[in-house]
Amino acid sequence: MPFTSLKFKPGIVSDITASSNEGGYVDGDKVRFRLGFPEKIGGWVKANLNTYLGTARSLHNWVALDSSDYLGIGTHLKYYIEEGGTFNDITPNRATTTNGILFSATNGSATITVTDSSHGAVEGDFVTISGSASLGGTITAAVLNKEHQIATVTNASTYTITASATANGSDTGNGGAGVDGVYQVNTGTNSGTGGTGWGAGLWGGMTTTALQTQLNEALDNSETAVDVDDETGITTAGDIILVEEELMLVAGDSDDNTLNVTRGHSGTTAVAHDDDTLVRLAFGNANASDDFVAWGQAAVVTVSNELRIWTHDNFGEDLLINARNGGIYYWDKSDGLTTRAVEISTESGASNTPTVAKQILVSDQDRHVIAFGANTLGTTVQDPLLIRFSSQESLVDWTPTATNTAGDLRLGGGSTFMQAVETKQAILVFTDKTLHAMKFIGPPFTFGLQELSKNITIMSSRSATAVDDAVFWMGIDSFYIYAGQTQQLPCTVKEKVFLDFNFEQRDKVHAGVNTEFSEITWFYPTASSSEIDAYVSYNYAEKVWYYGTLSRTAWLDRGIRTLPQATGGGFLYNHETGFDDDGSAMTSFIESAPIDVGDGDKFSFIKRVLPDITFNGSTSVNPTVNFTIKAKDFPGATYDQSSSQATSRSSTDPIEQFTNKLDYRIRGRAFALRIDSTAVGTKYKLGTPKVDVRQDGRR
User: Fold this and answer.
1) Rounded CA separation 68/334 (Å)
2) Domains observed in the chain
C-alpha cells in the first residue's frame, strides 16, 4: 500500500477528547510552533555563577548615559542591580538605631539575642551591626559587625540572629555602649496567603469574646465619623470594624464614642446602615486573639503578609522602585552601586510625595511619575483605587498647583488596583473588575481616564503584558486581549491550565514576551505546587497554544541584552541559547491525537515510518530523537502496544541526511505518533512524516 502522509494541525488542543482531535496534537513539553510545525524550544544557561538572596519576581533592564548595562532584580528579601555578573544590593534602609543595641550569648550556641527597644523588624529582615566590641570569647567584634538576617522576633524589643561562631563560656559581654544598627526595609513573604475575599483566612463565625457595640446613629454610604454606643477597645488606628458586611478601617476617635473611619475597607462596599446595627471588632490591637470573623467573611490579611512584588522604572539613568503596598524609593546612578536607594521624600524639594503605592511607572511620552493605589494627599491612608502623579519631569513635586501638572485620579469600579501596562497610545489600568485607559491630555487636567471594560478578571499584578498596542492578560478562568476592544482569546488548552492551578498562589503568575518567536507566555503554579512550575504560551502570529513545565519566577524579553533573561533558584539565566538545560539534556516531546484508518471499525497494521525532520542548529555531531508509534483498540483504552525507534542525523553534506526508515510491527484500531528528545545538543523540527499503514481486518 502507498505511504500515508501525517499532516498535523498546528498547536496543542487538549480541551476536547483526543479522538475528536484526530489530525492534531494533544500533548507536548518544551516545544513551540513555527510556520505550522512543532520544534524544540531554545535552551538556557546561567548568565553567571553568582546568586542572589530570595525569590526574584520582577526584572528591569536599562542603560545609563555612560553605557552601563543595568538589570534591576526585585526579590522577596532584597533589591539588586546586576552589572557584569555582580548582584549589587541597593535595598533601602528603614531605620537606624544609634548606641542602642545590646547582645546576649549562650554558651554552646550560635544564637545571639539582640535587644533594641524599637527595632520594628519582622522575621527575615536584615540588619547591619557596627561599633560592637567582642563579647569576650569566640563572639568577636568581627563576628558581630556585619550584615545579619534576623532569625526570630521575640517581641518589640528583642530578636535573635545566628552568628558565624558558637559562643563559649567567656562570651558574657553585651557588645559595649556604642553599637549601631541599620535596618533594611521589612522583607516580604515568598508565598501568597490568598488575600482578602472569598476563601481567604479563617472561617466559622464569631469568637465568643469579640468586642462589639452598636451604632448610635443611622449611617449613609459616605459618612466617616461613626457614632457608637461604646468605643472602648476599638479606638486604635489600624483597628478594623465590621458593620453588617462592610469593613471599616479605624483612624482614631474625634471625641467620646465617635470613630473616624475609612469606609468600604478591604474590598467591601460602603452602604447605608440603620441605627442600633451591631458593630464588631474584626481585627485590631485591643483584643486580637478574639477578633470576629463572620461566616463567609475572610479574615483580614495585612499587607505585610502579601507576596513581595517590586515594580520599577528608570527616571533618566536613575531608578525608581516600589515594593507593592510599600514606599517609593530612588537610586541615583551618580552615587554608585554601593549606595542604597532612599525614599523619594528625602530628596531635595520633595513635596507631598506618596508614602505608599501598589505600582509605580514613569510615563514614556510625558515624563510623569505615576503611583497607583497610593495614599491620599495630606494623609498616610492608602486608597487602593487612587492614582497620583507628579508634576511633569519631576521626581519630587507631587503637590497640585496652578503652575504644575501634578494631580490625582480615582478609578471607578472594582475594589482595588491590580496592574498598569503602558502601550504606545495609553496606559491601560486594571482593577480586579474593570479596565481603564489613562491618557495624557495636558493642563489643566493632565490625564484623562476612560473605562474600557467592566466585569473582567485579572489573575495577578503581573499577568498582563503589552505587545505594540495590544495587551494580553490571564484572567481567573480565561485569557483576554485588548486591541481597541476587549475580547476573550479562544484557547485550546484552557481546561488544562485552569483545572490544574494553585489559586492560593495566583499572585505568582507572571507574563513574559518572547518577540523573536511571537510568544506570550504565562508562568504559573500547578495544583500540586506552591511555586511556579509550568507555563502556557500563545503564539500571537500563528494563533496557536502550547504548554510545558519550567520553573521561572520572572522573565524579561530580549532588548538591550541580546537574549531573554529569566530567574529561578537564585540564578539569572540566559534563554534561547543552545538547546540544553544549563548543559544537561532537556526533555522535549510532542504527541499526536489517535489516528484511525477509515472510521476506526477496522484494525490497522503499521509496518514502517519514513521520518521527516530537520536537526539544523544542533550542536551535537549526531543529534537524535525518538519516534514512538503506539496503538490501542478503543478510544477509552490505554495504548497497549508501543515501539520506539531512534532517528539520528548522519551527515549534513551535501544535504542533511538522517535515518531513512523506521521499522515497526504495531496493530490496533487507532495509533498515535510521539516524538521526543532527551539527547544533549539536539535541536529538531518535525515536518510531515509518512507511515506505511495497512488495513488488517475487523478482529
Assistant:
1) 12
2) 4-42+585-695 (2.60.120), 93-184 (2.40.30.20), 212-300 (2.40.10), 305-575 (2.130.10.10)
